[in-house]
Amino acid sequence: MKTSYIWNISKGRPFPVELWKHSKIKVQVNQMQLDEMDRITIGPNDIHILFLQVTLAEWKQIQTTVASSFEANPFVSLILISSEDGVNQIQEMVEGHSKYLVLENPLHVRELRMILDRTIQSESYKAAALDIGNSCLENVGFFEGVFSLAHQEYEESKKENEALRSILKYEELVKRSQAGINTALDKVNDMKNQELIELHARVKASQQLDELREKELKQALELQRATEQVLNYSRIEEMNLDKILRAQDRLFEYTEQEIKELVEENRALKKKLGIT
């Protein structure tokens, strides 16, 4: 059984995809530091895929080593590059080299798994074709048919890689659109919150106006009651004054003669009583 070696080259970053079992090929991940690339051994009997997790600065430091040691090596099937800060720059640097595939940032684990699986499957077909060709050189037609099938699978794999790249770009556009929608929703929520604040202020002002009106009404009622009390007091004074006037009228009804007689009777009574 052939082995597919995935060389995870980084500064201690873990391999993002869980290992899976392949029906015909053993899959093995080897962790390598950036300064350990000279220890990578590429054998002709196995499948080799390089997966580099690097920053733009790190890529510039190792680009020459990667190009000289692995880019032209026929037993290196694919060189995958994942970068958090240099996707576009690295893509421009490796453009035109079919062995490179620069992944979108952020990394999509599901798409990475599909790329690896398709590459391993394609390489397994190629290896099977070569094995059959080596053992059946007399049947050139059969060998060419199998090799054509392997080549066709390889071309389809390349097309699938392009399709996956398009899917990743589409998902990136969707995420950007979603980010724009989220920004618009945030603005709408801010406007709603501002409207609620203004509505609360208007309600509070209305409550204060109602309280002021209620206070003015109470003051008006108190003034009315005080006015009524003053009017009642004035009526009482008028009634008392009326009684005094009637008494004076009755007093004036007595004639002057009656008053004189009363005075004389009063004097006579005092004499009888011995009052001087």
UniProtKB/TrEMBL annotation:
This protein's record includes keyword Coiled coil: yes
Keywords of this entry: Coiled coil
Coiled coil regions in record: 209-272
Identification of the protein by name: Uncharacterized protein
